[in-house]
Amino acid sequence: MKGKNVLAVAVSILLIVISSQIPSEKSAMLGVVQQLLLGVGLIGCLLAMWRFIKGGKKS
Question: Where are the transmembrane segments (predicted)?
Answer without folding.
Answer: 36-53
